[in-house]
């Protein structure tokens, strides 16, 4: 189980070098999910785990973006990016725990979580929150690593799992263990052998009363 303080510590270490080290490697996933969103003008999008804001310039300028992250250091870099690139469509960048968000129910048309689900302490709780803040019949998009179907690779991932606190994510994570059939999980694309883009429909099981 990932502890939030371990995650904060990991990303505090990464913050200074994140763009150089993780920017190019993870950018194909960011581009793929923003393309998959197919946002319409005026829609509100929440990006959970916005980090240093590398994805923010990729969104169309006619949609409204809110980003949250647990790392204060990452958010400071994101705010500088927004100012430098004059991204007027970014409504807010907030320090917030994704497992207990402050937003009202159904606040966003679409929710994006990139490289986040295998980082949080309680992935099932995170998914509940993503559904809660997304409007009924909205869509949730995930970019994440999931446990390999290859027996050898899965064994390596399991061995690395004991270093999760140092890595800042769980290498042996399996998203389908967290998702019920009603969630309609769809794999949209595979970025590489490590990362996938997935969509969850916010269906009737999560409608507001």
The count of β-strands is: 7
Mean pLDDT: 75
Rounded to the nearest angstrom, the radius of gyration is: 16 Å
Poorly predicted tracts of residues: 152-172, 204-209
Strand order across the largest sheet: 3-2-1-4-5-7-6
* Top CATH class: Alpha Beta
The residue fraction in helices comes out at 25-40%
CATH architecture: 3-Layer(aba) Sandwich
Q: How many distinct domains?
A: 1
What is the element string, with H for helices and E for strands?
A: HHEEHEEHEHHEE
Question: How many H/I helical runs?
Answer: 6
The CATH topology is what?
Answer: Rossmann fold
Give the N-to-C terminal Cα separation: 32 Å
Question: Class by helix and strand content?
Answer: alpha/beta
The shape is globular
CATH superfamily: Vaccinia Virus protein VP39
Largest sheet: 7 strands, mixed
Q: Work out the strand percent.
A: 15-25%
Protein topology:
Layout: H1 4-14, H2 18-37, E1 44-48, E2 64-69, H3 72-85, E3 90-95, E4 108-114, H4 123-133, E5 134-145, H5 151-160, H6 164-167, E6 185-190, E7 195-201
Parallel strand pairs: 1-2, 1-4, 2-3, 4-5
Antiparallel strand pairs: 5-7, 6-7
Notable characteristics:
6 helices; single chain; 33% helix; 7 strands; 209 residues; seven-stranded mixed β-sheet; alpha/beta; 23% strand; Rossmann fold; disordered C terminus
Description of the structure:
The chain has 209 residues and is of the alpha/beta class. It has a single domain, classed as 3-Layer(aba) Sandwich (Rossmann fold). The chain is 33% helix and 23% strand. The chain has six helices and seven strands; from the N terminus they run H-H-E-E-H-E-E-H-E-H-H-E-E. It has helices spanning 4-14, 18-37, 72-85, 123-133, 151-160, 164-167, and strands at residues 44-48, 64-69, 90-95, 108-114, 134-145, 185-190, 195-201. It has a seven-stranded mixed beta sheet with strand order 3-2-1-4-5-7-6. Strand 2 (64-69), helix 3 (72-85) and strand 3 (90-95) form a beta-alpha-beta unit. The radius of gyration is 16 Å and the shape is globular. The model is unreliable at 152-172 and 204-209 (pLDDT under 50).
